[in-house]
Amino acid sequence: xxxxxxxxxxxxxxxxxxxxxxxxxxxxxxxxxxxxxxxxxxxxxxxxxxxxxxxxxxxxxxxxxxxxxxxxx
Length: 73
Prior knowledge:
single chain, alpha+beta, Arc Repressor Mutant, subunit A, 3-stranded antiparallel β-sheet, elongated, HTH_17
């Protein structure tokens, strides 16, 4: 059981480095939580759902933002 717990914690640390929460997105973009949630609901937005938790894929975020320059989101 302890071995499983350690592997799970290592996995969580790896995921946290490659993703961020919606709250972090709001802070990064200097927008409200409501707007960050609405953006995260866009079908093409780079996110992954882990249970009820939505994580933004950081490696794809800049690319997505560049593709939507000039759009009203």
